[in-house]
Amino acid sequence: MMAAGELVSILVHTDVTRYMDFQQIGGSFVYLKGKGVYKAPASQSEAVTSPLLSFLERTKALRLMHYIKQADPDNPATWDGWDLKKMTMAQVFEGYGLGSGPQDMIGHALALWHDESYLQMPAVETFRRVRLYMLSLARFGESPFVYPMYGLGELPQGFARLSAIYGGTYMLKKPVDEILYDSDGKVCGVRSGTETARCKAVVCDPTYAMEKVRKVHRIIRIICLLSGLPQFAGEADSMQVILPRRQVDRKNGNNVCVNILI
Amino acid sequence: MKTHTNVDIYVACMSSTHNVCAKGFHVAIVSGIIETDDPVAEMAPALALFEGLILERFVHISNQFEPVEDGSKYNLFITKSLDPSSHFESVCEDVKSVYRRITGRELELKQRATPEEEQARMESRFNNAKEMAV
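Predict the joint structure of the above. Result:
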């Protein structure tokens, strides 16, 4: 998770951080087609020396990063004459003369967009995200990501403990057999076996109410146990990697172009 | 089959410093949206990063759902399935959305009472209750 991100501020705000510890995720790397794997710039000086971008791209990308730094999304006066709410990110990239390489670095590795739709959205959204990335980076240095000690299972546990303090009740290993509705069609309870819990509202994940959800995608997750890290990781002991699909030539798996974010 | 080209593949890789595996080992999670009938092959570019290092791998395929309505009609508020991203920014958006759907207000992270203030409040309540009992 991002060190200065929404989740961390929710965790700090709710005091869930009382029950959890975080450890930073190693460093940042980028792999570009035909170029191999490189450390993603974690600072201005690294950006200048990064072999990731060509000499010309570097200057242009730096100029854009500088602009993003000074353009406060909430203060149009700092936008230097551009209307970031009207302009798309594609127009901004065009204005700075940046090609697909630096675009993917900024759009996917820094702003963490999932697809290319951000290019057509108002630029201010991407600015917001890049600024969040830089802010997170500023907290720790090497990478903007932190990970909970003992794994992600600590997150629900932390919230469960906090909830218990405020009188919440947890019932584990209880199947939900049916969600009950009253004559107005409103939720009135949940049945498990022969027992019923009454309530005014239910919050649940989609698998409990399959008739009220639609399938959007299928997702694959592969968990791998590794004997070590690839060489490009260098001294980093952990990482987050993002591979923009546009950079991944799926017909030819040997010659892939990948952005890696650690 | 719907195509979603240009959706990223994510890899998160942790080590023993995060207390998720023994020293000398690493755990990597590769995730992405499936676009073809051969999902493992789709992840090949990510798996290739760890060539020769993978001791064991576990493939898990699941459906990603989202609610068709905001839930206020039934008072049944449904979250979205987790997306394949390995950071949590989209989850927070969903949490805020559920809060908005239930309460009609935006989730605001206001300054909460400190433990000391909480303690004082509870004590005064307790004392009031005691007085009333007397």
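Residues 1-61 of chain B form one domain.
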